[in-house]
Amino acid sequence: MTKVLITRKIPDRFVNDLEQFAEVEMWPHDLTPMPRDQFLASIKDATACITTLSETIDETVLSQAPHLKVIVNMAVGYDNINLELTRTHNVVVTNTPHVLSETTAELGFSLMLAVARRIVEAEKYVKDGKWQSWGPYLFAGKDVFQSKVGIFGMGEIGQAFARRLQGFHSDVLYHNRSRNLKAEKTLGVHYTDFDTLISESDFVICTAPLTQETERRFNKDVFKKMKRDAIFINIGRGPIVVEKDLVEALKQGEILGAGLDVVTEEPIDMNHEFLKLDNVVVVPHIGSATVVTRNRMIQCCVENVKAILNDKPPKTPVEL
Ligand code: GLV
């Protein structure tokens, strides 16, 4: 019998749908990842596997899964999957593009506003009972309105972010592997080289995927070149940033603050320096976390599994 392995608990209605076509084995927890040894044992006889970013898909997995036809990643990013190996093993990979772009941009925007207006610090101040009176510069922050914003990565998420900035009358620069003429035309964003982007922007927003080219791209030299009152937002992937360099830049006042949806080691170590800094807001990788969007992502996964099981082309293959 065909088996679909699902590595995280998803709502029954999606499981019931898949059960029309296959036997389904689902890890019954939504906040604890499937232990690696159990994952390796369970994928042995699976034809399709719905994974999350918690599962690393490498040779150990693929060599033990002779029946596997597809890895259906419940994310737009797929840096947890070795694509060269999936190609060698003839395993299709799918992701969940399009459905999460607006939601992820919105989280990035929330982080930008939260850091700029010191919302988290200010709220803690109130709850700690420290609010005594109004003060002219009490929690004085920084305007996004009419600022210069540099977006690193002008894919769908970068464009959704830029669209939101139109209401803030910002001047939007971007840097991307290739120019996005459509975005330039429709959103009025300006292409620049990376150095101009980081040195001129009041807000630097990283929306890029993790690749060999982007890994460790934001390092000591980059933070030194940023404006001293720049705010850095990362909604891409943690390893795009050299975290100790960011910590140093924040401590030395080389930049003003940071908002991070992603970090290198997730979940974050509770002793991480980020958590000791008032000018850093960290959230637990919730870029696409709205109920509607998560439903759409799971639906997209289900459709990809069904297509493969029915020998049809997948809906959203990762193009190799
Ligand atoms: C989340 O980070 C995703 O890639 O969808």
TrEMBL record:
Residues 109-287 form the D-isomer specific 2-hydroxyacid dehydrogenase NAD-binding domain. It holds the Pfam family 2-Hacid_dh_C. The keyword Oxidoreductase applies. SUPFAM superfamilies: Formate/glycerate dehydrogenase catalytic domain-like, NAD(P)-binding Rossmann-fold domains. GO terms for molecular function: glyoxylate reductase (NADPH) activity; hydroxypyruvate reductase [NAD(P)H] activity; NAD binding. Residues 4-318 form the D-isomer specific 2-hydroxyacid dehydrogenase catalytic domain. Keywords: Oxidoreductase. One of its GO terms (cellular component) is cytosol. It comes from the Bacteria. Belongs to the D-isomer specific 2-hydroxyacid dehydrogenase family. This is Glyoxylate reductase. It comes from Staphylococcus massiliensis S46. The lineage of its organism: Bacteria, Bacillati, Bacillota, Bacilli, Bacillales.
